[in-house]
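One thing: can you check what follows?
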Amino acid sequence: MSTADESSPVEGSNSIDECELITRLDEFSSYLRVRQSLSKKTVDQHRCMVRAFLTEVELLEPEPSDAWAHKERMMDQGYSNSHINNTMKAVEYYFDYLGRGDELATSERRNLPRKRTEPNPLTADEVREILGTAKTYRDTAIFRVLVSSGIRKSELANLDIEDVNLERRRLTIHEGKGNKDRTAVISSECADAISAYLLRREDAETDALFLSRYGNRLTPNGVYQLVKRTVARTDIERNVKVHTFRATFAQRLKENGADIYRIKELLGHDDIRSTMVYLRMEPDELGREHDKYYVDY
């Protein structure tokens, strides 16, 4: 989510002085970064959501009832449960920053159920079609990174050249989800694709691995748009997102016999339940697994 220009007036806000609002948001951002150890991306998202909340209630010292009303209003306006949960988490942090976190009732802290969709990984033919449709060395390298490492679009966009070790086929992921650094593994074909791209990469004043057409760091939205444009040129008719490559990576590992705990580590998950969301097991496969490991009694 992009943050609004905080130097512009807040439409409809007559009760909050703009300078006071920005000062308060600056203090809140520092609290999130220092006291909560959140990544800059998460801090920016929470700041944006709290700004919208404070602007709506026109108070810098809101009451718990204001938080509840804000949640209900988002539900009435049809926001996704995921967005509402993220917003209320930001509001919860704001009350904690005020030293009033215990004032929020349990009902206000309870998350709405998130809609879970079945994983829909790409087939081998679909992956080959997408790779064959990629127009440039950069695009080919990006798709090979996505499908061979399973990293997220934000993690890919944040890669610097120094984060790539082509000889060992390793990527260093800085401040991934959960504000954690980790190592991702890529295939030899992916390493070759990155090498070919780097030989042709234009000089730029940024250390970013992947550049936009303007010579700046490619953004997560730029990765999304690349996937959207490329898939549109193929014969693939279903919806393919950046996250589809992550699901494809996990599913291929499972099909080739990888242990779920190793898949968990390669995906960078803390909780194995997150890994389970990516893995699909057919009824016949369950039967084979039962017969393979069950001991007769």
Remarks:
- DSSP finds 14 helices and three strands in the chain.
